[in-house]
Design brief:
The complex is a heterodimer of chains A (324) and B (273). With 324 residues, chain A is mainly α. Helix content of chain A is 70%, strand content 0%. Chain A contains 13 helices and no strands. The longest helix of chain B is centred in the first third of the chain and has 32 residues, at 65-96. Classes of the chains: A mainly alpha (324), B mainly alpha (273). Chain A: Pfam families: BPD_transp_1.
Chain lengths: 324, 273
């Protein structure tokens, strides 16, 4: 080729050759300065912590957090052989299987209801949402000492009295039938439903009004049919996210179980109301057995991950059916 | 049509009553005398309104409530802005600074989201304990500052940040740090407010980690102090409720004042969860 190549047309991109080399170090320096705190923090408090905990779970680490006393799978064997631990797994499984669908239905129902209001929508939205500001400790306190207290002046007992029960019921202390379960479930419903109602409410408000109009033109008159054919399918993504969050939160239950039952554990036939996290808390900080505690942390982690993956799997099947 | 609306209002009121009742009980019980609250009869409202419960709650030397409130305020007031700032820094760098390490760093950060937080409290305790963080303020604060989830949200936000604005900044001679500090950060106030408020609520209401790390009464947060009172042998009920009322007032006020930002934050963190 003898003719000189025509000059390349200028593009919108920044000039390459010289500029890039010069920009390299400042870009790297800025990148490091901005990301290093986060990366270092997560490295130390997640990666190192989990790695250390994993190794520790194969050690006899009682009263120490040092590695070195290798005992293989002994911690796991001890843990899974302890009926208190397996019972705590059953407890959390039952709790999750109950609280997830009930919260889901209640949050969705309230969102539909609040969305239907003309005036006062903001007031009722706030009413249902504001318990989300309350800590589980305070919720547990109100439930245990006032709403469901065992004295005749407790709210639940006053209501029972109006309904004709003469004796006052010890809600927290009654294991058979498991009345303490009502206390645990209702406090969580009060504390968390509003949060998920907000998610559903936003999802509902994003559904285009024309969809409903078109459906009405097509003859879908009843509220129930509109919900089934428009609202419900349009809320699919929100529903999946809500179920996921509910499962993760249910599995990590600690605060209300600890505060409602902790001082009554002995009165409850041993470990009936213990969740895995309470069991692990007592193992690690009560008995100072960090090896077994770490092993338990991994069992619980695996359980949560499996459950959330399963949920994603089911949600995924639902989608392919819809699209196919 | 009208009847249906009436039905909706009736239904929503029926649900609203149990949602409001616990707040009413908190206030009523805090204002009752010990004798009246301990009596066996139901009272809608105290015969004599007394603030003795508040005096008892703050006067209990075994459980230093005022100090616990101070600890909680300090922890939440430091954690909320700092954790949000750290997340926005990392989010900006991952979205806008074109270096080869960007992708691996991103995966390094979001991979931590797969491990559920509360299940890691023992491993984290082992690390913080070995660094001498038990019964220290930093042990209470520092491990809670790193939210991969907030990084994800900020990264998404900065990816949509207008290029023209940055080009203008570059012409004015700003480097990447300048672009972040002078342009990107000041223009992310809305996201900052939403996530900051949610972070404040989370840290104020946290229980398990403060219980694990702040074992000495000097390092109790208000939630740990309340729990300690709740699990005592002889409970002074009005004082217990007065303390609880004091513990939720800041957050309820925050909810009522900043509701718009809180709802925005809930939607951001909830949907993407």
């Amino acid at each position: 080729m003898t003719t000189a190549a025509p000059p390349r047309p200028a593009t919108g991109r920044p000039r390459r050759a010289p500029g890039r080399r010069a920009a390299r170090w400042p870009a790297w320096r800025a990148f490091l300065l901005l990301t290093l705190p986060m990366v270092a923090g997560l490295f130390l408090f997640k990666y190192v912590a989990i790695g250390w905990g994993f190794l520790l779970s194969f050690n006899d680490a009682r009263g120490t957090i040092a590695l070195g006393d290798w005992n293989g799978l002994e911690n796991y064997r001890r843990l899974l052989g302890d009926p208190a631990f397996t019972r705590s797994l059953v407890t959390i499984l039952l709790f999750t299987l109950f609280i997830v669908p009930v919260t889901f239905a209640l949050a969705l129902g309230l969102a539909v209801l609040v969305n239907r209001l003309r005036g006062g929508r903001a007031f009722f939205r706030t009413t249902f949402f504001i318990p989300a500001a309350v800590s589980y400790v305070v919720g547990a306190l109100v439930w245990k000492m006032s709403l469901f207290s065992g004295t005749p002046s407790g709210v639940a007992n006053s209501l029972a009295y109006l309904l004709g029960y003469e004796e006052s019921i010890g809600w927290v202390a009654t294991v058979d039938p498991p009345l303490y379960w009502i206390v645990l479930v209702t406090v969580r419903l009060w504390l968390q439903t509003g949060f998920y109602m907000i998610l559903f409410l936003a999802g509902i408000q994003q559904i285009p009004a024309q969809l409903y109009e078109a459906a009405r033109v097509d003859g879908a008159e009843s509220e129930a049919r509109l919900f089934r054919h428009i609202t419900w399918p349009m809320l699919r993504n929100t529903s999946v996210a809500v179920v996921l969050l509910l499962i993760i939160n249910a599995f990590q239950a600690f605060d209300e179980f600890y505060n409602i039952l902790a001082s009554n554990l002995s009165g409850l036939g041993g470990a009936d109301g213990r969740t895995p996290l309470i069991y692990l808390f007592q193992t690690a900080l009560g008995e100072q057995n960090y090896g077994a505690g770490s092993a338990g942390a991994f069992v619980v982690t695996v359980l949560i991950v499996v459950f959330t993956l399963l949920q994603g799997r089911f949600a995924g099947f639902g989608r392919s059916e819809e699209e196919g | 049509m009208n009847r249906r609306r009436l039905g909706s209002y009736l239904a929503v009121i029926v649900f609203a009553v149990p949602f409001l009742l616990p707040f009413y009980l908190l206030i009523r019980n805090a204002l009752m005398s010990r004798r009246e609250l301990g009596s066996l009869d139901w009272h809608w409202w105290p015969e004599t309104v007394t603030f003795q419960g508040f005096a008892d709650a703050f006067g209990n030397e075994a459980v230093p409530l005022a100090h616990a409130l101070w600890n909680s305020t300090l922890i939440a007031a430091i954690s909320a802005p700092l954790s949000t700032l750290l997340a926005s820094m990392a989010g900006y760098a991952l979205a806008r600074i074109p270096v080869a390490a960007s992708k691996p760093a991103f995966f390094f950060i979001i991979a931590t989201m797969m491990v559920p937080g509360a299940a890691t409290f023992i491993p984290t305790f082992v690390v913080v304990g070995s660094l001498g963080g038990v019964n220290t303020m930093w042990g209470l604060i520092v491990p809670g500052l790193f939210s991969a989830f907030a990084v994800l949200l900020f990264r998404g936000f900065y990816l949509r940040f207008p290029r023209e604005l940055e080009d203008a900044g570059r012409v004015d001679g700003l480097g990447y740090l300048g672009l972040y500090g002078r342009l990107a950060l000041p223009n992310s106030g809305a996201l900052f407010a939403s996530l900051g408020i949610l972070s404040f609520i989370e840290h104020w209401n946290a229980f398990l980690w403060p219980l694990v790390i702040g074992q000495d009464p000097e390092y109790w947060t208000v939630q740990v102090a309340l729990s300690t009172n709740l699990n005592q042998q002889a409970v002074n009920l009005p004082a217990l409720f007065a303390g609880a009322l004091v513990a939720i007032l800041p957050l309820v006020a925050l909810f009522l004042i900043a509701q718009r930002w809180i709802v925005r934050g809930v939607l951001l963190t909830g949907i993407k969860g």
